Amino acid sequence: MFDLDRWQEIFQNISKNKLRTVLSGFTIAFAILLFTLLFGVGNGLKNTFAEQFAGDAENSVYIRSGRTSKPYKGLQSGRRIQFKNDDTKFINENFEDDIQYFSPNIERFNVFAIYKSEQNNYTVRGVYPDYQPLESAVIQDGRFLSYLDLEKRAKVIVIGRLVEEDLFGAKHALGKNINLGGISYKVVGVFNDPGGDNDERYIYTPFTTSQGIYRKNGELDRFGLTFNPKLSPNQALAFTNRLTKELKNKHNIHPRDQAAIRVQNYAEGTQAVNGLMFGLTVMILFIGIGTLIAGIIGISNIMVYIVKERTKELGIRKALGATPKSIIGMIMMESIFITALSGYAGLLLGTSVLKLIGPTLEEYFIKDPSVETSVVVGATIMLVIAGTIAGYLPAKRAARIKPIVALRDE
I need a labelling partner for 4 at 20 to 30 A (CA). Which of 113, 146, 162, 378 fits? Predict the structure, then answer.
């Protein structure tokens, strides 16, 4: 039950010992403040890593061609490797069981787009319908490209959300026609992308349409695919190595030539980032626990000192009839109250500082630094428990002292 007299007594004791109370509270508040800032900055780094890999499927693989850097089979170095439609057929025939989604790609940069009086430059990609999951493009209006569009070589496009904003403002682009490089295309879909603004400024058109206009000799720029999600990381790496080897053999490229065909496997990057984030989490947790332990030691020492300082007072209380239980309860309640109030103050200060400095930290690759309330509340509860134990042990010892001994204490 709520004991008004006891709480009045606690507040009187706090008011009489302001410096002691402030020092006790500062120890707790500072520990929670450091804990909050540390976890907030750590989460900001995690957000940065997550954003960098948000725009593509984790099992995606991109294959690009370049120039040979080594002579091979009588062929000179510096030879340009050009992918063609027969490479598409070769990959699908030899690696069908290892591939989930697949799309050749034709990419045109700085294509001039016009709608009425609005105009801008964008990157236009000619792709298969399977390209949508590779880029994690989410359709917000209309549809993505279809295989019927490929078959008919339809002059249709799917545009990013920011392309729609640039050219159409607040109006909807679906069903409208956009002039791309002097050719009219109908907008059949609008997408958004978790990868951010850059990924929402792309325009997708059917691969066959793009190839018929820009690559009439059956040429293409690159391949995008996702490997079978049932493959383990080691199996996925073996698959990409085998795919690279087979393509090098097909194009007469030296096995150790790293420039002629470049394969980017996002699974490798994801594994590396996951390992880095795990290490970062462990480091933050280690330092955070160390901070809490320092706070626990601080509040424990202060509580031991407080009880020792009040030994004579406790002796008088016992002489007047106070039970050991009531003495222990009073000290513990005071300890819990100071610890909880100070911890809450540290939590508020920490979250406020994170909100205040958050925007300025982006240039240091720390995005949206924040900390889950449950984590900090848990840390505060831990300190409250520590403060309770720290108050209980010396209070119990003091409660056992005989009044006459306590009154003689200096």
Answer: 378
* Helix, strand, coil fractions of the chain, as percent rounded to 5: 60, 20, 20
What is the total residue count of the chain?
410
Q: How many whole angstroms separate alpha carbon 189 and alpha carbon 176?
A: 10
Does the global pTM surpass 0.70?
A: no
Q: How far apart are the first and last CA of the chain?
A: 36
Any domain includes 301: yes
148, 202: one domain: yes
The model's pLDDT over 257-278, given as tens digits with 9 standing for 90+, comes to 999 999 888 766 666 667 777 7
Q: How far apart are CA 382 and CA 403, in angstroms?
A: 34
The model's pLDDT over 165-191, given as tens digits with 9 standing for 90+, comes to 999 988 999 999 999 989 999 999 999
Count of Cβ atoms closer than 10 Å to residue 44 Cβ: 21
Q: Tell me the mean pLDDT in the region 151-158.
A: 96
Structural domain tally of the chain?
A: 2
86 part of a folded domain: yes
Name the residue with higher pLDDT: 406 or 203: 203
Whole-number mean pLDDT of the chain? 83
Cβ distance 390 to 304 under 8 Å? Answer: yes
Per-residue HEC secondary structure of 341-397 comes to HHHHHHHHHHHHHHHHHHHHHHHHCCCCCCCCHHHHHHHHHHHHHHHHHHHHHHHHH
Lookup: tokens for 141: 């209006």
